[in-house]
Every structure is written in C-alpha cells, then in structure tokens.
Amino acid sequence: MACRRISESVVRGATTAESVVGQALARLEGDRFGAVVSVDRDGAMERAREVDLEVRRGRLRGPLVGVPVVIKDNICTRWWRTTAGSRALADFVPSYDAAVVERLAAAGAVVCAKTNCDEFAMGSRGTTSAFGPTQNPRAAGRSPGGSSSGSAAAVAGGLAPVALGSDTGGSIRLPAAWTGTVGFKPSYGAVSRRGLVAYCSSTDVIGPIGASVEDVAAVFDALAGPDAGDETVATARAAGEELPRTAAVLLDGDLPGVVVDAVRTVASCFPKRRDASLPSLAAACAAYHVCAASEAFSNLARHVVRAMPRSRASWAEGTPDCFGPECARRLELGARLLGERHADALYFRALDVRREVARSLRDIFAHADILVCPVAPHLPPRFDDHLPPADRGGGGDAASRRGDFLDAVAPDLPADYRDDDFTAFASLAGLPAITLPVAGSSSAGLPVGVQLVARRFEDRTLLAAARLVSRLLRDDDDDDDHEEPNASIYY
C-alpha cells in the first residue's frame, strides 16, 4: 500500500523523505479540487530533512516514516492558521499542536497541508466552507461529501496518500464513500480529541482517510492510545484482531439497487449472515442533529463569544456575519434548544432516542460480530440536489413516539440531514465504523461505499474484517481499471 511503500523505500535508502514530500507539495500546490486551504512548504521540507537524519541514525522505523499527510483544517497546528472553514476563525493561529499532530510527527510522518471542510464541520456536502466548495475528483459536478470534504478529495485526487478528518455524525465515512476512498471512524475514546475545534463533543472523533485499509490502519495505530490532555480517551488498548464470522445486514428504506447490491456483496464475504433491523434509524439521525446543534452552540461560544446571541429572539435580529448561513441556522437551533423555556424537552427526548439506539445495537451485536450497511441512502448527489423528508418508520407505541419526535424537530433540521441516516447511529453509540469502496457497483461510474460497524473499542477487529473484505473483493474483481486511488503516485 502507498504508506508502506513510501516508508520502506525511505528507511532502506531507496529514496528520501525530502524527495517524497517535495513531490507531494508540488501536487498540493497544484490542487484543482478546492481540497487544500493552506500548504506549509517550508515547515514540511524542514521536517522531511529531520526525518531523513533520524533514519540515517537508525532512530525511525514504521509504516509512516516519510509519509506526507494532510489534515482537516479544524485540527490545531502550532503557529499555523486553523480556521475550521469559517471566517470566525480567520485569524486563529494556535500556539500548540493537536495530540494527533504530535503523534504523526513521532511516527515519522510529515504534515504538509490543511484541507477544506464544511464550516465548523457543519455539513455533509462539502459546500459550506468560507473557502468555497470542494469538488469530487471521482464524480465531476457531484458532492464529495462532508464535512471532511477536502481530506477525502485530496486522497481521491492523488494529492496525498493519506489524510486526517473528523467525524461527528458521518463526516469521515460519507466523503470516503462518495470519493471511492477508505474512511475510518474510530471508537469514541480511542483517539485523543485534544486540539480539535469542537463541534459536538459527545460524538466528535478524529480518524484517517486513505486509499486502502492498510493505510488507515497504520495511521490509527499511530494515533490511538491514552492522552493525559483528554480525559475521554480510554486507558486500555483496543481489542485485538479476532476475525469476525457473523455479519448482521441492515438495509432500510428505499435504497438504490446498486447500494443494496454492494451491501450484499460485502456481507457475502462473511461465513454467516443474518438480517438486522434498527427501528430507531430515522429518529437516530434527527436525535443526532438535535444533540449536535445544542453542543455546537455551547462549544462555539468559547471561540467567538461576542458574536453569539443568547436567545432565538437575538438571532432573529440578524445573523452574525462571521458565520455562513448553514452554520448560523444550526446555531440558532442550538440557541432555541438551550435558551428558551420548555425547548430543552426536545433535547431530552433526543437523549432518550440515543439510549434506545444503544439498546438496539447491543441486541444486534449479541448475535453478530459485524454490522454491514450502507453509508448513505443515495449515491453522490449533484450540488443542488435535495432529498424528501425522512419516513416516520413502522407502527407501534415506540414508533409513534419516534414519529412524534421527528415531526417536532424536522422543520429545524438541515435540508440534507438524511445524508446521515446510516452514519448517525454509530456516532450516537460511540462505535467504530469504516467505509469501503465497492468497485464497479454503479453503472453510471459513481463511487459506492459500504459501511462496516463493530462493538465499541473493537477497532482492530473491525480493521481485520475490512482487510478481509478488501482482499476478497480484489480477488473477485477482474477489471484492471479499478485500482486504488493514489496507488501509483510515488512508486
């Protein structure tokens, strides 16, 4: 895989980190996808020369030595502007590196650029950044997904072999699915969030996007582990790589045939399969957006306190001009949920749905090792496409309560909130999830991704399952045109 090929070549002296990073910088500076917001040529080249010196001294080994990495622009970098895609942070220059940046450096990787993202990670289409939209290298005129749009586009477009993104309700998995890359959302608590510009602190995670499972696994191994600066990180190592045998298959709603076929193809890689249902699927997505808006309003006040009205009435007087319209609308919802009398009832109902989702997932994993499902209920949309409202779901008292909740919150939800139908539930439960591209699934040539989900902290079991699926799908694919994105950039 790309990372291993680069690191092995650097370590054995066949090339240098300086040469590899120089190639990457040239590609990043020629970005035509709107994927990159800033490049640190001087810093990256200096770091590459340091890596080469450490290699010559025999002090650096591992799969990331000399590997160029790009990171989402909501991850703090010391003395390097971090905007989170917003005018509100146009002049924010952190005085410290995020924990994940420190760990990449310790592994011998070289951070070269910051990538575009939806404003404060609020978006699923890659269109709300103050720097403009990100284009999809694999599907011209269609969304690359969000909010980690630039990270996915950078990998898919051959600008870098691997990238970091953040995932709050699907923001790594959706862009990976719509750009034909691999996106991994670790368990909540597996990777430090120190230095991440917070959106929804109870679901935010940092994870990798790459061209292969091997590449994202190598990055995860470098990032995972305890951090004294983040008390939400688990102190124990994630579980080992026991190979899963039983897959639960979740297919719900009116899905495109190519998506259904792709899910069934991936599920067929496991010896045993069983159908699964998640009755609270649509309500989970709505509950996620209620929780996210509420936490976002509180979190963003720390960055731009003077610009944050404290009530819905204050918002009605005028949107603060430092926020884009989608970000402002979500913050208005958060203000209403937290600031008005009785509005918190919706927030507490969202927490009830969250608990219901966790119970349903425990029931599924009592009989299965892995959950296989779509990443999104549709293929990459055109930038101006929108979706109909979510279906209320089946009958019964519980379904009726979920339907009432959906009716109550639907008018305030983002127009495209159904993009998160199949990703929000794993975020609410803190579970690890990975997106795999399924080659040749769409007759229109559009990328199709399938999601694997595992129990919390069984991240390495999930990665083992993803390796198995990727290997079996490669063995079954006789079309040589379907190669990994970015597979031959360097070697």
TrEMBL record:
Lineage top rank: taxon: Eukaryota
Pfam families: Amidase
InterPro entries: Amidase, Amidase_CS, Amidase_dom, AS_sf
Positions of the Amidase domain: 23-463
UniProt GO molecular function: catalytic activity
Compositionally skewed regions (Polar residues) per UniProt: 125-137
Region listing for Disordered, in residue ranges: 125-152
Family stated for the protein in its record: Belongs to the amidase family.
Protein's name according to its UniProt entry: Amidase domain-containing protein
